[in-house]
Amino acid sequence: MNLLRYLGKNIFFVLAVITLTIYLPLFAIWTQLNNRETLKNWLEKSSLYENIVEDFFELTQSAPQNNESRESNKSSPLESSTDKGPLKREELLAILKQTYNEEFLRSGAHEILDGTYDWLEKKAEKPVYEVSLGEKAPELASKLGGELKLRLAKLPECSYAELIALEEKGFDPLQATCVPAGYDLNKQIDEYAAKYAQEDSFLYDATLSSNNLSMSKDVLEGLPSMFGLLNTLLFVLPLFLVIFTGLYVLTSTKRLESLERLGTRFFTTGLFAFLGFLILLSSRGWFKGADPNSGAEPGTKGPGFLQNIIGSIWNQAIGDIAKTGMILGVVIVLLGVGIWVGAWFVQNNKSGNIDNKKEEKVKT
Same structural domain for residues 229 and 327? Predict the structure, then answer.
């Protein structure tokens, strides 16, 4: 019987320690990922909405012209030769950023996150979202056309020599230094702007839709179930911890000493967790391309911008998870100290009372 009690006591102790060890990182990680607002905040601080249009624009500027553009001698608004024409590169970029503004990009990102989380939380049978960048094409055409008309209206009429040159390469509004006589600005520029907004814009016809996702029935049902299981574990594991620690103490013959041992284990587990998350916090910035200091601003623009944004989000995630884990580690340390001190105090009090009674008996 004593052997069974001894084995049971130690099994419950080990189970309690394992439960606590699992719960600490699970709580720190899942309380962040389980909250859609946290992810939205990470995106906000990553400067994604401020920089993505400009960064994509820089990519298209550095890319070589395609064969069709070379053969037609036409320049797209998104190619590097715009600095020579009436509409400068910075001016075109400003039009793009006004059209695909931060509010539009933020709304699209939130729609994707909300649709995904509604599915994971079993509020919908599948992810439901659709963000069409092409819906902004008319607005882009209007802004681009309006700006070109203003600039071209200020150009002089083409000379005979200039007209001869135009016959060879064609009239390109973006490269124009003069306007042919009789050129219908309203009609031609509207057609030109609409064409580029609907065919050559790097953001046109980019539709992010849940209908394009190819997921099996097992995935559609499995991921939400796993999501729910992890949420359940956040509430069940503390209950198991209380049960295992209670059984450990109840099966011990020296319960106060068992409580002291339990307090010591809580203290060391919480301390190691705190130190582990502190090391994790110091690892921010290890992701290549991310800013190691704040973890909020992308490092550079251009071809590496996506890596910088991912690095920024990664650093924010690491920071928030580590801070949550450190706080929880401190709570567990304090709990362990409280258990140990409480057990020690009761035990010393009890020993003192027994000694007093012995002294009284001796005196009588």
Answer: yes
